[in-house]
Structures are given as C-alpha cells and as structure tokens.
Amino acid sequence: MTEPIGAGHLLTDSDLRSVDSLGPVEVLVGVCALNQSRSVVRVVEAAAGGLAAPLADRKSGIVVVEAGFQDDTLDAVKSWLTKRIPAVPVSCVRIAGPPSRSRAILGALAVAHRLGPAACALVDAGLLSLTPEGLGRLVRPILAGEADCVGPTYTHTAAEGTLTTNLLAPMCGALYGRRIQQLLGGCAALSGQVATRLLETDVWESDLIGHGLEIGLVIDAIVSGHRIAEVHQGRKILDAGVASPDLATTIAHTVGPFFRLMDRYRSFWSESGASAPVARIGDPPTVVPETGEIRLDRMVRAFNMGLKDLLPVWEQALQEETLASLYPLGLLSPDEFVFPAEHWARVVFDFAVAYHAQRLPRDHLLRALTPLYLGRVAAFLRETHAGARAGIPTVLEGIARAFEAEKAGLAARWR
Amino acid sequence: MGDAWSDVLVASFRGVVQRLGDVAPRLLAMVAVIALGWAVAAIARRLTVRIFRMVDLDARCARWGLTASLSRSGIGQSPSQVIGQLVFWTIFFVALLTSVEALEMPATAGLAAGVVRFLPNLVVAALVWMVGLLLANFMAQAVLIAAVNAQVALAPLIAGAVRWLVLVFAGAAALTQLGIAREMVLLTFGIAFGGTVLALALAFGLGGKDLAREILESRFRKPDGDDDRLTHV
Which helix (H) or strand (E) holds A283? Predict the structure, then answer.
C-alpha cells in the first residue's frame, strides 16, 4: 500500500479551504465536470435536492470538481449559488493538469478522503437525468451497509450505449465474472473505505486518460471482492459538454483503459470462472427496441471501407482466421448485413492481445477498431430492431456467451 | 658476353627479391589488418545483434512499422540483423582502408583518414533517414486510419502522399547532411515541394471540391437526426 493521493496534491490552498469549509460530512457528492457549464447547475440542483430530502437525516456536502480548460463550469455554479442558497453546502474546486474526466474523479476521491464521509457519490456534471430520488437510491445501500460500491442501471433503447452492450459489459463479464450493465453509467456511490482504497494505489496516474478511472474503479471493486450492487435509475440523459469527442476518440478513451487494466489484473481474469449477475435494487433494467429509423447503410459502408483500406493495419492486429471470417461480410448488403457475436468477440480479443503485445502504436490500434465496431453495431441494431425474431435479452445473452467462450484461450495468448 | 648476360640476370633477380622483401612485410601487414578487421567486425556484428535483441528492438520496430518498410524495400532481415550488418561493413570497410594505407602507396596516402573524417556525416545522414522513415510510416498510418474513420474516399492515396512527402523531406535532409550537391538538393527540393503543394492546392480546390466538402462535412458537420439517437457509452 502506498500513501493515498491527497487533496493537497491536487488542489490550491484556497480550494482546500473551500473544501474544508464543508466540514466533516456523512455523505459527499462529487460532481465531476469537464467543460460542462451547460448542464452542471441542473446536476448540482438535483444532487442538492437529493441530499436535502431523501438523505435529509445525514450531514452532507457537494463538491464540484472541474478538470477542464474553461472557467465557465465553476462560474455557472457560483452564479447559481448567488441566486439561491441550497440546503447543503457546495464547494467549487479546480484540478490542475491536462483536461481529463478521470482527473476530476480523482479530485473528488481525494476530497472524499480528506473529509472522510461514510458514503461518496460521484456524478458526471452532464448527467441531466439525475433526480433527487435517484441520488437517494444510489447512496442508501452504502449507508445501510448493504453494498460497498453501487452503480446505476438504465432503461435504454438498443441504439443507446452500444459500446457498452457490445463490448465493455460482455467483456467485463467474461473476464471478471460479474455482469454489470453500466461501466460508464455517469454516477456511482462508494463507501468511504473504498474511496480511500482507490487512492492508495500508485497506478492511477496511467489511468487518467479518458474514462480510465471510471472503468478502473468498477473493475478494482470487483477484483477486490467488494460488495457491488446496481440501482435502477430510469432513463439516462447525458450532456457530454463542449468537449464531446468523436467516435474513434471515444473508443480510444474507453477500450484503451479497459485493455490496459487487463495487464494489471491478469492473474485475476485468467482464473475467474463463469459470470454471475450483481445484486440489483429496484426495477430490473430493460433494453427496448429502437423504433426510429437509423441509417445502417452508413455503418456498413464504414465497415466495408475499413475492410478495403485498413487491411494492412488489421493484418497486424487480427489472427489470420479472424480476418478470414470478416471477408465474407464485405459482400453483404446493408439489408442483410450480419456480424455474428462470435466473430466480434474474437476481433475484440485479438485487438486486446495486439494491444498487450504493442504490435502497433496503441492509439492507432484502438482507432482502427472503429469500422469493425460500426459493423458490429449495424448488425446488432438489425438483430434487435422492433419486430426482430430474437428478443433483446436473448441477443445480449448471446453476446455475453460469445465473449465467455472466446476468453478460454486468451491466457495462453497473453505472453 | 656470357658473364655480362648472367650479371644482368642476377642483378635483375636481386632487384626483384629486394623489392619483394621491401613490400612483403607491408603485404603481410595488409592481410593481417584485413583478417583482424574481419574478425573484429564479425564479433561486433554478433554483439550488436544480441544487444538489440535483448532490448526487443525487432518487436518495437514491427510496432513502429519499420519492419514492414524494410520488407517493402526488399530487405528480408530483421532490424537488429540489418544494424548488425551495418556495423560489420562499417568496421570491415575501415579495416580495408587501413590495410590499403599499410601498403604506403603515394596514391592512397590519407585515404583512410579522409573517409573516417566523413563517417560522422554518414552516420548522421543515416539516422536522419531512419527517423524520417519511422515518421513517414507513423504519419501515413495515422492519416490512413483517420481518413477511413471519416469515411473519406481515396484514404490510402492520401496516406501514401503523406508518406512520400515525409520521405522526400527526410531524403533531402540526409543528402544535405552528406554535403552532396547541397545547393542543387535545396533548390530541387524547394521547387518540387512548392510545386507539389501548389498542385495539390489547385487539384483539391478546383478538381476535388466535392472531396474537400466531403472531408470537411464528415469532420465538422453535426450528425443527422437519426444519428443523434445512437449513443455509444
């Protein structure tokens, strides 16, 4: 164990005084922002409402942590604070260093370590769907001692969160043995002990790019054997802010950290067994068919273009038989396009091995996954569209099984 | 008459033997230097290959795209073997020059020193070329992936153009370092580079309006309504 990263390392003296003014709290809500002035006030309002009503019996505070390059986010909150005085104290701090969502989360964790709350909720400043009741549902299991780490589940359409449903969640289940619906749910609640433990590891510095810390937080909780629960939060509405990245960057910032964590937790995943669901509180999450028209032809065109032009790159990442299984897909029209989950799982695991072996510059490798991912999304949306023969749960179960089957030979390839 | 004839023959023979006696040690020295140079070069090659394999150079070069470039150029050896060969031939070449100096012939006087003085330029030029090659591969790959992700037609062509642009630049810099027709290289490069940029600008602006619009639209235009429903995380 190393010395935890303290707030003193990340905050200025005036910000530290501002944080200390919150005093000892039982519940701390860290609103983590990355240039999100557009939405931050609504999220702070919802958090304040949650702490004032469903959690009124607990002494609490809110800290807004901005890790972006603009002052607008904190200015918006300060301006709101001058107009109305919330029932709970609010502190605004800025984290120095390169703009990064993970850095904002690290800052919130450091503040939690300083104030020593029993429960710490981390909320994305763009999570417009957060409600006071939702925050209460998130934090209560921690305060009741029923869980150490609580994440959200959402009701969403098949077209929402496709990177999660087709890659992050099934791969997490296959590798770490826990079926978690949302690795990037936009909010989570941790016990004070878990929050401090996360800061005690010295490896987070490498995870501060993109969504590294959010993903690492969930996986570390699984690997450490903490009690994990999921709470239904209705529909997810997230405003990514002005720094909304393109798809290739999103993949690099989510799949990259996930692959990197596979190195750290190799001993765990190489011995883990079949996946099991985590404890669920409230309504079960549902994935509903996408009823609107989404143009799949663009995604299929992106896949075909990748198959034509990115072959030299894919040849370095994929095994021969994996690549051979992709060629016939290039002959299919958008109306009949399929990308079986088994092939997709093999592609993802091949990319993970190539990432581990550093066969290509890692950023190039991750970005080269984009056309393949779009191909898989097109096939997934065809499989799950309203009126499709197989139900969405069956399709999701098929993806999970494909990833678990593909994991079998992974350890041997991970040299 | 017979005595005079034999005297001439004996004197000639003595002269040849004497000259051979003078040259023989130099020849022996030359052979010894070549043999020693070959032995040292072979040992250095083996050591170099071993060291570069220990630091995993071959895997790294494969990652950087250098191995693929070597393969495209018809070099089937691994980068560590190529460097080993370079070390071997450099040492052996210096040994050969030194051995020629050992003959003490007026025509070759100072040859080795001159070549050795030029070696640093050669090494720097080789390094410049090597870095240029790496950069060209890296940038071409980055451009190719970005262009395909933006669904730009002719992505390999654009990536190839970037690769050659960087290679030409690196080649010009290497030749300048070697001092080979410096003014001509600078002038040629300036004209070729400027001309290429102008040609590309004209081609892109006049002939490739649609392509330019396609690239800019895919990069900056907000997605259509149906794409708004698609979220990834």
Answer: none
- Domain spans of chain B? 19-109, 118-221
Buried b / exposed e over B1-13, threshold 16 CB at 10 Å, is: eeeeeeeeeeeee
A273/A339 same-domain check: no
Residue A236: inside a domain, yes or no?
yes
Look at residue B47 in the predicted model and tell me its pLDDT. 95
Residue A2 forms part of a structural domain: no
Question: A272 and A340 share a domain?
Answer: no
On whether any CB of chain A is under 8 Å from the CB of B68, the answer is: yes
User: B210: distance to nearest CA of chain A, Å?
Assistant: 18
A99 φ/ψ angles, rounded to the nearest 5 degrees: -60, 130
Interface residues from chain A to B (CB-CB < 8 Å): 157, 159-164, 168, 184, 211, 238, 246-248, 250-251, 254, 290, 292-295, 298, 301-302, 305-306, 309-310, 312-313, 316, 357-361, 364, 367-368, 370-371, 377
At B178 the pLDDT is 87
Residues of A whose CB is below 8 A from B156: 309
The pLDDT of residue B21 is above 80: yes
| Beta strand segments in B13-144, E | none
Is the model's pLDDT at A243 over the cut of 80?
Answer: no
Domain count, chain A: 2
Q: Give domain status of residue A224, yes or no.
A: yes
Tens digit of pLDDT for each residue in A348-393? 999 999 999 888 899 999 999 999 999 999 999 999 986 666 688 9
Residue A337: predicted pLDDT:
95
**Residue A102: pLDDT over 70:** yes
In the prediction, which pLDDT does B222 show? 52
Match domain B118-221 to its CATH number in 3.20.20.70, 3.40.80.10, 3.40.50.300, 1.10.287.1260: 1.10.287.1260
The set of residues, in sequence order, having a beta carbon less than 8 Å from that of A128 and lying 6+ positions away, is: A39, A42, A43, A237, A238, A239
Q: Note whether residue A119 is domain-resident.
A: yes
d(CA A399, CA A380): 10
Domain of residue A170: give its range: 7-286
The 10s digit of each residue's pLDDT in B118-148 is 888 888 998 898 889 889 989 999 999 999 9
Record: contact B155-A160, CB cut-off 8 A: no
Question: Could you tell me if B148 lies within 8 Å of chain A, comparing CB atoms?
Answer: yes
The predicted model scores a pTM of 0.83
Asked if A249 and A118 sit in the same domain, the reply is yes
Whether A361 sits inside 8 A of B141 (CB atoms) is: yes
Q: Does A248 sit within 8 Å of B146, measured CB to CB?
A: yes
- Per DSSP, the three-state class of B153 is coil
- Which residue of chain A is at minimal alpha-carbon distance from B138? A361
- Window 81-120 of B, Cβ < 8 Å to A: none
Residues of A in contact with B226 (CB under 8 A): 292-295
Which of B138, B156, B227 is opposite residue A361, by nearest beta carbon? B138
Residue B72 has pLDDT above 70, yes or no: no
How far is the C-alpha of A254 from the C-alpha of B150, rounded, in Å? 19
Same domain flag for A191 and A261: yes
